[in-house]
Amino acid sequence: MTANVAVETTPEAPLWNDPDRPVAARVDALIGAMTLDEKIAQLYGVWVGASANGGEVAPHQHDMEEAVDLDALLPHGLGQLTRPFGTAPVDPALGALSLLRTQNRITAASRFGIPAVAHEECLAGFAAWRATAYPVPLSWGATFDPDVVRRMAAAIGRDMRAVGVHQGLAPVLDVVRDARWGRVEETIGEDPYLVGTIGTAYVRGLESAGIVATLKHFVGYSASRAGRNLAPSPMGPRERADVLLPPFEMAIREGGARSVMHSYTDTDGVPAAADESLLTGLLRDTWGFDGTVVADYFGIAFLRILHGIAGDWAEAAGAALKAGVDIELPTVKTFGAPLAAAVTDGRVPESLIDRALRRVLGQKAMLGLLDPDWNPVPPALDGADLDDPDALRGTVDLDGPENRALAREIAEKAVVLLSNDGTLPLARPRRIALVGPNATEGTAVLGCYSFPQHVGVQHPDVPVGIDLPTLRDTLAAEFPDADITVARGTGVDDGDLTGIGAAVDAAAHADVVVAVLGDRAGLFGRGTSGEGCDTESLALPGAQQQLLDALLDSGTPVVTVLLAGRPYALGRAAAESAAIVQSFFPGVAGTQAIAGVISGRTNPSGRLPVSVPRAPGSQPTTYLGARLAQASEVSNIDPTPAFGFGHGLTYTSFAWDGLAVDADQAPTDGEFTLALTVRNTGDRTGTEVVQLYLHDPVASVVQPVQRLVGYTRVDLEPGEARRVRVTVPADVASFTGRDGHRIVEPGDLELRLAASSTDTRLTATVTLTGPARRVDHTRRFHAAFSLEPAPEG
């Protein structure tokens, strides 16, 4: 098909290459000059792997796809390059050179010379060989510290931008609904406000570095039945609106995210990839999102082969386009020849192609990819001799000291001390029995989307590429005078009982046992946590509980350390361990952070982003349960957690008092102001996390017993006190009413100032007055905290 309209150009430069013209005018001119094949080529990517010697990328062969012929595709152009760094281990400098040369090939092969958008995974750091592996998102949630997450994301973004990447496939904004789901480690937690604030901070950081942040998975993926990956989500519209959508609203409105990835799931029979009311009606028409919607990998093809709502590839492509999907990833399948044929025979209107293309080209224009002076040389290679690949090797450092210091700061803030009978911090123990499958495993700190666990495991002959000290290494450095005896006990999930006797013997001859248990991250059943690694119950994998129980019977105090991707029920150990230290895949500096907490060098300040269950089979449940979800006399299943959402201990103590409420009544469009004093009553510096929960005693629809509406970290020296003031807008009490609209209702509320969801310290009863008021996505999301000097006396 030929160009369909006349366009304004000049002999010197076409209008679309003029950066002084409005983006919309540039895009319209370019669309008018393109053939159908050229248009469609901008709406898909190709999965590639960078060359290990700096040559052009090679198409990645995947069992879902036929081989891709780049020579046949590139004359029409190419929309995206999928994971050039995250497909195989490649030196970062040579990967950047490979991407550069490929971009030159792409621009030279087509009429318009449009570069591709290169995207990468960045869920726990840039997923590239030798790049810093940061803590997983569940650890971000445990920090209750949006600022440190923003700084981390900015560092990740700078590294990606330096080597030529444009888009990052993060953050995950799914709210945990069932901890049996394998991808819990990729989430920020079980509360939508925590997920929204931490996720928005990540978006801000990534976007500040010029990287397009991609929100995923929109929406409902984490609400799958029985916690199974890629399964139907039986949620109702109110759960979707009040629990699962708010983090996306916040990240779009406040974070400025420029891309959204649809979810794999289907809800009430409608797959997210074909849900026009979701991807166009809500996302664009209501929220005003003007970025791109990208397919989760193979998600459009799944409309045919898994969801069964399309009879062929063209029908799948048409359904996704109509719904609002703009880009097929990871490679061309349905948006190639099948879509072109469907447009030609009238099954898919070309206007849908143009609509998606307008968004894609608009984003490329804002990235500078349509400018005449666009330069394919990324900052990391600026000034380098590009003709000497061997000289480039090792010149790009993606795991420098600043990255590792930041990774360590997050890991330290994310360690949660669940229980402690006074055994911790350890006071120069003479003999330590270090037991468990994760005690000497360097990769035990990594999640499934870290490069070593996601890609590196497929290349066992290639070094990991980053320094991963084991807990044995860091404890030896922390306690240089101690005699440390190591016993594996059992594997993570092999069920082997033969080593338990030796572990118990080591415990019997020690002053303290440090039992290091938990998960091994992997993909699709190759791990105990990660994508496709769902579990039937929340019992510790393998024979780890048997090992732990045997150690408790030894009579030696047991410090239980968990390196895991989800919370686990610990049986009798929840009450009988001398201490429990929880860390969710804490990244490259994770074992140093844990050793610091054990020794007392670091005062723990992490708080649980997910509840720790008391029993392994009481799922699904989160702290957001309504009254009927609580323990009762009419069921023999008690869902009460062993440790609730927001829980975490420190090595000091805090007193909360002096609650004052400026006014106990406000209209439904008003606000309340509360203040309290928090004092460090212990003998060392510490951090208290003040959490604000809302309890609505009577509402027109069933509400959770309580839900988080605000939080702040308060750092205090021994004896120091601060006045914590919080302004609470009525908007935070809103919920979806019976007619499907979000409302603020009049009536009494309890504002609970708490150290966790199970530890309320002070409560203010207030009243909203006046008529019920309708609100929308422009409502006020936050209770605003400020810290002031404490009053004297």
From TrEMBL:
Ranges of residues in domain Fibronectin type III-like: 688-757
Gene Ontology biological-process entries: carbohydrate metabolic process
Coiled-coil portions: none
Any one GO molecular-function label of the UniProt entry: hydrolase activity, hydrolyzing O-glycosyl compounds
Key word Zinc-finger present: no
Swiss-Prot/TrEMBL keywords: Hydrolase
Similarity section: Belongs to the glycosyl hydrolase 3 family.
Name recorded for this polypeptide: Beta-glucosidase
Organism of this sequence: Streptomyces pilosus
Organism placement in taxonomy: Bacteria, Bacillati, Actinomycetota, Actinomycetes, Kitasatosporales
